[in-house]
Design goal:
By secondary structure, the protein is an alpha+beta fold. Among the domains are: 92 residues, Serine Threonine Protein Phosphatase 5, Tetratricopeptide repeat (Alpha Horseshoe), CATH 1.25.40; 88 residues, no CATH class. Helix content is 58%, strand content 14%. Strands 1, 2, 3, 4, 5 and 6 form a six-stranded antiparallel beta sheet that branches.
Length: 319
């Protein structure tokens, strides 16, 4: 390998390693250096780092520069479509994904799945289902994501029996261990059972399985709220910063870390909100939870009680 090739490999390893570890400025610096070598991964790495830094417009601009220089790289078109979709530029997103589909060797299944998810966001259930039906894929892990999107689409179309069937099919495809589609599949199963008048105990159990799989999933939180259905007058939408003690060390020989996590909750008051939050946290940490800060986001009114958003953990060493 030439010295230049070794330098590129080193930058790729360092850049994507920094991205994975949350060192986004370092990842961005590596992307800038890679662009000097005219390596197309510089655009992907740079865009992902910029998105993590909440500089979404710059991330889109970098990818637009990337697809102009390397129009045959479907990965860049796919990421550009995803970022445009997140910014609600759906016309631009569909153009990007369609451009990706025209690239030789593209992953058509991933591109069509992303199109289907965006169409679902727009309420275009029939069009979303059409994209899902065109996916030709045999990998069970990927098909679990497809069935999750299909279940959600069936819900949009009011076809709840098929929604339940798709969710059960997807759950049957999951490999051993954690999987990114699991929370959505359990949530869609729960909401499908609830909407079709099915077994409500099973529905609530599936909703809590969704939370156990990914407590940050908005769909999981929605399933719990909808199925419990506790609607009262005078409920307040509030944002809370929660502090707690984790139940085990993150590294051998180290003390158990403290953590912060943010929640958005609809509840009567702070005590009520904390009790709702405790149900989303591992049982061993619940006694340690306390409210570090809070703010009211809306006036009291009649609405469904429950958690709306659970944030990621930020760990820190105990004093």
């Amino acid at each position: 390998m030439s010295p230049g090739g070794r330098k590129v490999t080193k930058l790729l390893d360092e850049g994507f390693g920094a991205l994975e570890e949350g060192r986004y400025e370092e990842a961005l610096a590596a992307a800038d250096a890679l662009e000097g070598f005219r390596h197309t991964s510089s655009f992907e790495l740079g865009a992902l780092a910029l998105r993590a830094l909440e500089r979404e417009e710059e991330a889109v601009a970098r990818l637009e520069r990337g697809v102009e220089k390397a129009p045959g790289v479907w990965l860049l078109w796919n990421l550009l479509g995803n970022l445009r979709s997140d910014a609600e530029d759906y016309e631009g997103a569909f153009t990007a994904w369609d451009s990706g589909l025209s690239c030789d060797g593209c992953d058509a299944g991933s591109l069509r799945l992303n199109k289907a998810i965006a169409l679902g966001r727009l309420g275009k259930g029939d069009d979303a289902l059409g994209e899902l039906n065109r996916i030709e894929e045999s990998d069970p892990s990927f098909l679990a994501h497809v069935e999750g999107a299909r279940a959600h689409t069936m819900g949009l179309l009011g076809r709840h029996t098929e929604r339940i069937d798709a969710a059960r099919s997807g759950l049957g495809l999951l490999p051993d261990g954690p999987h990114a589609a699991e929370a959505q599949l359990f949530a869609e199963l729960a909401l499908g059972l609830q909407a079709s008048g099915g077994d409500q105990e099973e529905a609530l159990g599936a909703a809590w399985e969704a939370v156990a799989s990914d407590r940050t999933s908005p769909r999981a939180a929605e399933a719990v709220r909808e199925i419990e259905g506790v609607e009262e007058e005078g409920l307040v939408l509030m944002h809370l910063m929660i502090q707690g003690l984790w139940f085990q060390p993150l590294e051998k020989g180290q003390p158990k870390p403290m953590f912060f996590t943010a929640y958005t909750v609809v509840a009567r008051d702070l005590d009520d909100a904390l009790e709702l939050i405790k149900r989303f946290e591992p049982e061993p940490v619940r006694a340690s939870l306390k409210i570090e800060d809070s703010s009211i986001l809306d006036a009291p009114q009649r609405r469904l009680k429950g958690v709306h958003h659970a944030g990621a953990y930020a760990f820190f060493a105990p004093e």
